[in-house]
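Homework help board

Subject: predicted structure for assignment chain

Our instructor gave us this sequence and asked us to write out the predicted structure in token form, then describe one feature. I got the tokens but I'm not sure how to describe them. Can anyone check?
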Amino acid sequence: MTVRTTRQRTAILDALTEADEFRSAQQWHEAMSRGGDRIGLATVYRNLQSMAEAGAVDAVRDEDGEVLYRLCHATGEHHHHLRCRHCGAAVEIEGPAVESWAAKIGAENGFTNIDHTMELTGTCSACAAKGL
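My token output:
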């Protein structure tokens, strides 16, 4: 999927580059507004979704089901995350056992082109030190 470059998309990418944690579209919009960017919330939502579909942005769901976004740092196509449920810090992790398991389950049931998502959440060492 080709992603067209627009002024709004460039502003969103600039914001994503400045912070490494996962945030909701509304949180990204608020941060951009505080920084002086004039961009509509619906535009932020639309652009984040299309950038996630293109693989430029990671998208995960929090415990409440809200989609959170951050700039993708992975060098490969498919990856997983270990995310702090308190501060949003995240690291990208590999899961070869999960990949093998998903392919095996798919094949056993006659499925091909298997895709999946996996996210681990916990408390990072910085938040644990604060007693969170």
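Reply (TA_rk): Your tokens look well-formed. For the description, you could write something like this. The beta strands are 23-24, 57-61, 67-71, 80-84, 90-93, 119-122. That's the kind of observation they're looking for.
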